[in-house]
Amino acid sequence: QVQLVQSGGGLVQAGGSLRLSCKYSPIIFSTMGWYRQAPGKERELVADITSSGTTNFADSVKGRFTISRDSANNMVYLQMDSLQSEDTAVYYCNQRLGSLTYWGRGTQVTVSS
Q1: C-alpha span between 97 and 99 (Å, rounded)
Q2: What sign does the dihedral 67-64-106-8 (CA atoms) show?
Q3: For 31, 94, 96, 100, which has the most beta carbons within 10 A of its beta carbon?
Q4: CB-hemisphere CA count at 13 Å for 33?
Q5: Nearest to 23 by CA among 41, 36, 4, 1
Q6: DSSP letter string over 55-82?
Q7: What are the backbone angles phi and psi of residue 44, rounded to the nearest 5°?
């Protein structure tokens, strides 16, 4: 069984920062990502990173968020800076390889304005 165990999240003032962490199962060549879902909205990709280190960001978070991974320890991180009220959502860690995909349980991020 594949498990994704994530931590972080919480309540922060606009302009503040948070870092999310996710421990994942060692699947070679897998892509790690962070998604978010706000109330009444569909789940959307925030950022992802391939096994070779190539990153991709949603336009709404470019320049503010950073995704990184520590492959030796099977960890992926999402550093969120300059947070806005629009970033309020449940954030999910994701691991995928081809048609296989796995999800973390999600963590709430709330940004007060």
Answers
A1: 6
A2: positive
A3: 94
A4: 23
A5: 4
A6: EEE-GGGTTTEEEEEEGGGTEEEEEE-S
A7: -130, 150
In a structure prediction context, what are the per-residue pLDDT tens digits for the chain, which is 113 residues long?
Answer: 788 999 999 999 999 999 999 999 998 899 999 999 999 999 999 999 999 999 999 999 999 999 999 999 999 999 999 999 999 999 999 999 999 999 999 999 999 98
Distances (CA, A) of 92 to 5, 43, 62, 109: 10, 9, 18, 11
Distances, alpha carbon 95 to alpha carbons 15, 37, 53, in Å: 29, 17, 14
> What's the token pair of residue 73?
């320890």
Q: Which two tokens stand for residue 7?
A: 């931590």
